[in-house]
Amino acid sequence: PKEVIVRARQRLRELETSAQRPAEQQQSHLPLFDSEPPRPETSEMEQLLQEIEPDELSPREALEALYRLKEKLEE
Q: Against a cut of 0.70, is the pTM above it?
């Protein structure tokens, strides 16, 4: 998924940056357990889907929503 690739690139940049620092400033290890797991970023498509209330849409509105989502996917 796109979010995984974005996060991997971000983590790679962090690791490359930390590799350039002096050894005493680097962390000796990564934490095994975080107090709170990282929350995945919500993609634009997920946000659009969350805004749709299918039970409240007319058939025409539902069709228009599908076309909008398809258009976003093709961008």
A: no
Which residue ranges of the chain lie beneath pLDDT 70? 19-39
Nearest C-alpha neighbor of 51 from the set 41, 39, 59, 43? 43
Alpha helix (H) ranges present in the chain?
Answer: 2-19, 44-51, 59-74
Phi, psi values for residue 35, rounded to 5°: -65, -30
Of the candidates 49, 72, 73, the one whose C-alpha atom is nearest the C-alpha of residue 57 is 49
Dig out the tokens for 26 from the structure. 């680097």
48-53 long-range Cβ contacts below 8 angstroms, 24+ apart: 48/72
